[in-house]
TrEMBL record:
<dbReference type="InterPro" id="IPR035994">
    <property type="entry name" value="Nucleoside_phosphorylase_sf"/>
</dbReference>
<dbReference type="Pfam" id="PF24883">
    <property type="entry name" value="NPHP3_N"/>
</dbReference>
<dbReference type="InterPro" id="IPR027417">
    <property type="entry name" value="P-loop_NTPase"/>
</dbReference>
<dbReference type="InterPro" id="IPR007111">
    <property type="entry name" value="NACHT_NTPase"/>
</dbReference>
<keyword id="KW-0677">Repeat</keyword>
<dbReference type="Pfam" id="PF01048">
    <property type="entry name" value="PNP_UDP_1"/>
</dbReference>
<dbReference type="InterPro" id="IPR056884">
    <property type="entry name" value="NPHP3-like_N"/>
</dbReference>
<protein>
    <recommendedName>
        <fullName>NACHT domain-containing protein</fullName>
    </recommendedName>
</protein>
<feature type="domain" description="NACHT">
    <location>
        <begin position="360"/>
        <end position="520"/>
    </location>
</feature>
<dbReference type="InterPro" id="IPR053137">
    <property type="entry name" value="NLR-like"/>
</dbReference>
<dbReference type="GO" id="GO:0003824">
    <property type="term" value="F:catalytic activity"/>
</dbReference>
<dbReference type="GO" id="GO:0009116">
    <property type="term" value="P:nucleoside metabolic process"/>
</dbReference>
<dbReference type="InterPro" id="IPR000845">
    <property type="entry name" value="Nucleoside_phosphorylase_d"/>
</dbReference>
């Protein structure tokens, strides 16, 4: 399938065997596995990264067992292709330990990270093209056998007559073929118009042994994960590579397994790989992070503690630290234990749906004092508390009246960088290079030295960090009071849009939630995301808070009636949640004190009339 074959390596590197070449302008390293199994794949992948540190991602191309599900119109046949497809719950490949069985089936022991954004986008583009024009896989196979005629016999389609799917309970009757098997137990399927491969997208199971049992296959299929294929190598890449798995179907993972379809299945998988690479511009790949850097992120996040960080990484974090950038966050009161939860409801604000889709910016608008900051502090806390790997979370709260960096874009970027780097700073050598090259100390000084960050340097650093993280993780950024930034809202927002565009494609790996006063989204010309008007959702929170505060005071009904009327009028007049809290906190808890408090608020102009009314009432009672 290579368009060009390059000279081999001048010296042996480890135990790996490589073929070098080019496909559609991409430099390709083909590493051949010495044997089947996850362990072999892991060893080969690790050695490959050492030998070729500039590799961006892996395409795991080979054969697998198909998992048809005719009841759900999933008609997978021998010679078809299955491509790993991530969902909301799995990254496209799940690992099962077929030696350990539980009451619910086999033990699931892991999940492969979803493919890089550039591959996911290319797959979606290819799906759309195939709907209009069909696949080019057979064309590439034709090219292959034309160029190498001796391959034709072995790698041609074996014929639909040799594609037999038997009922689950019917086992193979022996022999290298199914000639001795009873065709009465064969599952009836309509003939296809073409012998060309159908392409399916779904979950692939990576197991630790060969599966030759239809009953076990059906047991795995019943897990509602959309399983379409079973194989034995992909899990070996779980900690080694950002990757996409492409499998040609050579059997049905049952006792009728044989080798006849394996060459053709491998060839069509390679053909799909070539077609996929043909629609990805080479420059789109070269600007992506190296796979070795992505692996270091995972390893550092799991193995490195702050005490183990080398001196340069610690100094890097020090250059990003700034006085007071977390003051605003620390001074925001925590939400009441039963408030703010509405935003997590699916029938309310659309926030959970936005997080699942991962598309654009979620913009919350609200009047001053309406509880925007309290809500965002709650969201940040919940995101950190419930974050499921792989995910990074960072937040910044602008403060117009705080330290200088609290109300400028530079402060925001410094804070976000420090939060994103801190869990695994040793895994970002390019940040250190940026410090040494672009932010060099005074002439002749050695790093670390007095470093001055410019806005453009900070922006480029954040774009690079987010780009590396988003290759394997989702990144959630929470930004409060965007209109308190002394830079123009539209300027700050344009930067946010820029690094979303630079670091994601059709399936965004970056989510940004921001707040501002009413009109902020309009000023920023938001066209890609959602806008939530906070006032439409906080009435219940206000009621909950007031009710809880009143309950703690253990007051009488008369007091409740009087204060409730005051709060109702203030709310109708436009008082914010913070103003209502202030009114409630300064209101006396007893009726007698409340009366004194009420009389003390009477305007001097009406004191005479007030005394006359009270005297009239008292005289009437006498």
């Amino acid at each position: 399938m290579l368009d060009e074959v390059h000279p081999g390596l001048s010296a042996q590197r480890g135990q790996n065997s490589y073929v070098l070449g080019k496909i559609a302008g991409h430099n390709i390293v083909v590493a051949v596995l010495p044997e089947i199994g996850n362990n072999a794949a892991a060893v080969v992948a690790t050695q490959l990264l050492n030998d070729f540190p500039a590799v961006r991602f892996a395409l795991l191309v080979g054969i697998g067992g198909g998992v048809p599900d005719l009841s759900n119109n999933i008609d997978i046949r021998l010679g078809d292709i299955v491509v790993s497809k991530p969902t909301n719950t799995v990254g496209g490949v799940v690992q099962y330990d077929l030696r350990k069985e539980t009451v619910n089936g086999f033990e699931r022991s892991g999940t492969l990270d979803k493919p890089p954004a550039v591959l996911r986008a290319a797959v979606q583009q290819l799906v759309a093209r195939h709907e209009m024009e069909g696949s080019q896989v057979l064309f590439y196979l034709s090219q292959m056998v034309t160029k190498f005629p001796k391959m034709k016999e072995k790698y041609s389609h074996p014929g639909a007559g040799d594609d037999q799917l038997f009922e689950t309970h019917y086992d193979h009757k022996g022999g290298r073929t199914c000639a001795g098997c009873d065709s009465a137990y064969e599952v009836s399927r309509l003939p296809r118009r073409s012998t060309g491969p159908e392409i399916h997208y779904g979950t692939i199971v990576s197991a630790n042994r060969v599966l030759k049992n239809a009953a076990e296959r059906e047991k795995l299929k019943s897990g509602n994960l959309g399983i379409m294929c079973m194989e034995m190598e992909a899990a070996g890449l779980m900690d080694s590579f950002p990757s996409l798995v492409i499998r040609g179907i050579c059997d049905y993972a049952d006792s009728h397994k044989n080798r006849k379809w394996q060459p053709y299945a491998a060839a069509v998988a390679a053909g799909y790989m070539k077609e996929l690479l043909s629609i990805i511009p080479p420059w789109e790949v070269t600007r992506r992070s190296h796979a070795s850097g992505v692996v270091q992120i995972r390893q550092a996040g799991e193995q490195k503690s702050t005490k183990e960080l080398d001196k340069e990484c610690i100094e890097c974090l020090k250059t990003l630290s700034s006085t007071g950038t977390s003051n605003r966050y620390n001074n925001i009161p925590n939400s009441h234990k039963t408030t703010c939860k509405w935003i997590m409801g699916r029938d309310a604000a659309g926030f959970p749906e936005w997080r699942e889709n991962g598309q654009g910016i979620f913009w919350i608008e609200g009047k001053p004092g309406s509880g925007k900051s309290v809500l965002l502090k709650y969201l940040l806390s919940e995101a950190r508390r419930h974050a499921k790997a792989p995910q990074s979370v960072a937040g910044f709260f602008f403060n117009r009246y705080g330290f200088p960096l609290e109300h400028y874009m530079e402060g925001m970027i410094r804070s976000l960088l420090a939060q994103l780097l801190r869990p695994f700073p040793a895994s970002f050598p390019f940040i250190l290079n940026l410090l040494k090259q672009k932010l060099s100390p005074s002439e002749g000084a050695q790093f670390p030295g007095p470093i001055r960050w410019s806005r453009s340097d900070l922006q480029q650093a954040l774009i690079s960090v987010i780009g590396t993280i988003s290759a394997t993780q989702r990144a959630l950024l929470i930004l409060d009071a965007l209109d308190d930034c002394d830079d123009l809202v539209c300027d700050t927002f344009n930067f946010l849009k820029e690094f979303i565009n630079q670091n994601s494609t059709q399936e965004a790996n970056i989510e940004i939630c921001v707040t501002s006063r009413p009109g902020g989204a309009r000023v920023a010309s938001l066209t890609y995301g959602m806008v939530l008007q906070l006032e439409q959702h906080i009435a219940e929170d206000i009621s909950t808070y007031v009710t809880s505060s009143i309950a703690r005071l253990n007051i009488v009904f008369l007091w409740l009636t009087l204060v409730n009327e005051t709060l109702r009028k203030d709310f109708a007049a436009g008082d914010s949640l913070s103003e209502l809290r202030r009114t409630l906190s300064t209101t006396p808890s007893g009726p007698s004190d409340l009366y004194r408090h009420t009389l003390g608020r009477v305007d001097e102009r009406y004191e005479g009339e007030t005394k006359t009314m009270f005297l009239t009432v008292l005289t009437a009672k006498l």
